[in-house]
Write a structure and sequence with these properties.
mainly beta, two-stranded antiparallel sheet
């Protein structure tokens, strides 16, 4: 597995209309981490990284997140 930033990861999910940026809050929708409702900013990262475009779903930036997985 590779390590990378959330803002460049297909498993990062943000609010509709949110900008992909370092301080944007979203959630991780990786199947192993989704049950934990992990909130993380774009400049966070981990070894579950998969290069791609972040997903979009309302509730992804809520505290705690209320969104469903959109992928």
């Amino acid at each position: 597995m590779a390590w990378g930033l959330c803002k460049d990861c297909k498993w990062w999910q943000i609010e509709p209309g949110a900008k992909v940026a370092d301080h944007t809050v979203g959630m991780c929708i990786d199947e192993d981490l989704f049950p934990f409702l992990v909130s993380i900013t774009g400049n966070g990262g981990c070894n579950k990284f998969m290069d791609g475009t972040p997903a979009v779903e309302k509730g992804s930036g809520a505290q705690p997140p209320t969104a469903k997985q959109s992928r």
